[in-house]
Write a structure and sequence with these properties.
Blueprint lengths: L4 H16 L9 E6 L2 E4 L15 E4 L4 E2 L8 H10 L5 E5 L2 H8 L30 H10 L5 E4 L3 E6 L2 H23 L8 H11 L30
Antiparallel strand pairs: 1-2, 1-5, 2-3, 3-4, 5-7, 6-7
């Protein structure tokens, strides 16, 4: 077992937060995080409030698991996503209600709100259906996630990606809110969908969105978010 107790505790805390925030129910959903030589993933069938750090399962890049606990039944798409996407280190899956409603209707989330930019594209795609825990579902998920940080799973739920569990959680939280907003606009007869040119500007601005002064921002990026002039470390 890798010596990653702090990370294991963070994984459990993220899953508990997911349920407490109403983004998941019961023991549904799962989380994986890249580590040296493989990944850590939540175990199958153990409630988050009963889960212990040593029950988090380690897997290697050959698809083998180690220890006394079996990994989540959805280990395949976690393993395949992390192997195919070196740009992300955490995969979070839940049955968030509004995302699941749209997934059960096989509906993408279109750019009805500019915050769809958190997904890395101008639409959150919904995959086709495949039984849970299968290689077929993994293929569907990878296709819907291409170049994006989130997707809906047909008749199932949602996947959110990030560099850390906290960042994957933030994507999940925003995508569930987008799903809620989109359902609301459909109830009112349909929202105004942002066009390609409008979303191009949004996605450009997201490259510098949320950056602090010590974080690198490419000054060549068009439509970057510009802070006001800096007045020094402290106002006199």
């Amino acid at each position: 077992m890798t010596d990653d107790r702090d990370l294991r505790e963070e994984m459990i805390a993220t899953c508990l937060r997911m349920n407490a925030s109403g983004l998941n129910i019961g023991a549904a959903g799962n989380l994986s995080v890249r580590v040296e030589g493989g990944l850590l993933i939540t175990p199958s069938g153990i409630a988050y409030d009963k889960m212990r750090p040593e029950q988090i399962v380690e897997m290697d890049w050959e698809g083998r698991y180690y220890g006394d606990f079996v990994p989540s039944s959805e280990w395949r798409f976690h393993y395949d996503i992390l192997k195919a996407r070196p740009d992300v280190d955490a995969v979070l899956h839940s049955h968030a209600v509004n995302c699941s409603i749209l997934a059960c209707c096989r509906l993408d989330i279109p750019p009805v709100h500019y915050m769809i930019g958190v997904s890395g594209g101008d639409v959150v795609k919904c995959s086709g259906y495949a039984p849970f825990g299968t290689a077929e579902l993994s293929v569907e998920a990878l296709s819907a996630l291409e170049d994006r940080m989130a997707c809906l799973l047909g008749n199932h739920g949602v996947i959110a990606l990030g560099k850390t569990p906290a960042k994957a959680f933030a994507v999940l939280e925003e995508v569930e809110n987008l799903a809620r907003v989109y359902i609301g606009t459909r109830m009112l007869g349909g929202g105004v969908i942002l066009g390609k040119e409008e979303m191009t500007v949004v996605l450009e601005r997201f490259k510098s969105y949320g950056k602090q002064a010590d974080e690198a921002v490419d000054t060549a990026v068009k439509n970057r978010v510009e802070p006001p002039p800096h007045g020094g470390s402290k106002r006199l």
